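sorry for the late reply, my laptop died twice this morning and i had to redo everyting from scratch. anyway the thing you sent over, i finally got around to it. pasting the sequence first so we're on the same page, its 129 residues, then the predicted structure underneath. double check i copied it right bc i was rushing
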Amino acid sequence: MIGQISRFAGIGVLATTLHVIVAIVAAEFFAVTPLLANSIGFFAAFSLSYLGHGRITFGTSLEHRYHAPRFLTVSAIGLVLSTALTELIAVQLGASFVLAMAVVAFAVPISTFFFCKFWVFARPYSTDP
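ok and here's the structure:
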């Protein structure tokens, strides 16, 4: 499992880097709005994460109709968790935003790893309707 965690972290760093670079390039060189640039960057990172985690981290032969919706669901859960933790810690409790981001940076990747390991890319699975 240590190997999977290392691969998961490496792909996460690559995906985050790709997100930022693509978003900046889209905004600065193609003059798209910041929100659109961020969305383009997110999609690029999402694609890298899905393929990288599926094939490299968890060694799955991806069946996109099965794995992709699950991965999208986990990504959405990560966004909701990130937002909820930020609201709770920084807004409701009045703690520092930096503390909120530290908790998010710890909690979201860990929960995402376990969702991916035990649900998104878990074996055995059935693709029967």
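Residues 62 and 72 are 14 Å apart (CA to CA).
thats about all i looked at so far, will dig more tmrw
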